[in-house]
Amino acid sequence: DVQLVESGGGSAQAGGSLRLSCAASGYTYNKDCMVWFRQVPGKEREWVAAIINGARYANSVKGRFTISTDNANNTLSLQMDRLRPEDTAMYYCNDRCRTLFGPGTQVTVS
Length: 110
Fold this sequence. Notes:
Blueprint: E1 3-7, E2 10-12, E3 18-25, E4 34-39, E5 46-51, E6 55-57, E7 65-70, E8 75-80, E9 89-95, E10 100-101, E11 105-109
Parallel strand pairs: 2-11
Antiparallel strand pairs: 1-3, 3-8, 4-5, 4-9, 5-6, 7-8, 9-10, 9-11
């Protein structure tokens, strides 16, 4: 089956770090198609970071988050540093070229 599965979420204190991973299976993704989103209950899904002709970031995470891709392992990552309570959300990996989302991984910052 073609799917994306996120991992690495959890709890962190403000100022701390977490690293999310997104493993693609059943196909080989194009790195220029990969995006990280996040969503808080009751709010719309928010774009966080993407690789589109280079790494691009939402203003809210710029300078704190780093998106990267390991093409050999078909895995996308999101390094999140200097976390803030407002980063608390469900984080989703997306292949925008296939309209494919993973089930998400929860990040909670206190």
